[in-house]
Amino acid sequence: MTKIFLETFLLNKSRKLYERLDIIIIYAEVRRKKEEGRSKKEEVRRKNSLMDN
After folding, report:
1. Beta-carbon count within 10 A of 2 CB
2. In angstroms, rounded to a whole number, what is the distance separating the alpha carbons of residues 46 and 41?
3. In the chain, which residue ranges form alpha helices assigned H by DSSP?
4. Per-residue pLDDT of the chain (53 residues; tens, 9 = 90+)
């Protein structure tokens, strides 16, 4: 009985850990996409300002 309890406990722990990792990975991807979007916007602004001058 103790073995089954321990395996279940460890399984739940690892599942929670993986869920947390997924959240961190998703957060990092969203952040990276935002940064890419910002750099593209800055590039467009720079090109526009060069054309204006």
Report:
1. 6
2. 9
3. 2-52
4. 688 888 999 999 998 888 899 989 999 999 999 988 888 888 889 888 888 86
